[in-house]
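Changelog-adjacent note: as of this version, every example in the card shows the full chain rather than a window. The one below runs 92 residues end to end.
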Amino acid sequence: MIFSREYIGYLARRTVKHLSEAKMIHSSQVPLVEERVTQAMIEELSLEDRINEEVRVILEAYQQEMLKSGAQYAEMFKKVKAELTRKYKAVL
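Full-length structure tokens:
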């Protein structure tokens, strides 16, 4: 993940504070809202990490074939990642 969990928590608290001040949300349980926003942000920001891990697993399964054909790992990584990104409709 590109941000630390502490920083994501900070961003979530600031987001909730901003939305509350703008009267876009109202809650008597602000800490609960902050925790849920933090979890949602962590999930969204870790999507690329999960996609990268899935690409590694896929390429590991085809490692022998890639060696035989002379395919470059970095090139195949980009192609498989692009395909998975489309599959999951992710914006990275």
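Structural remarks: The two ends are 12 Å apart (CA to CA).
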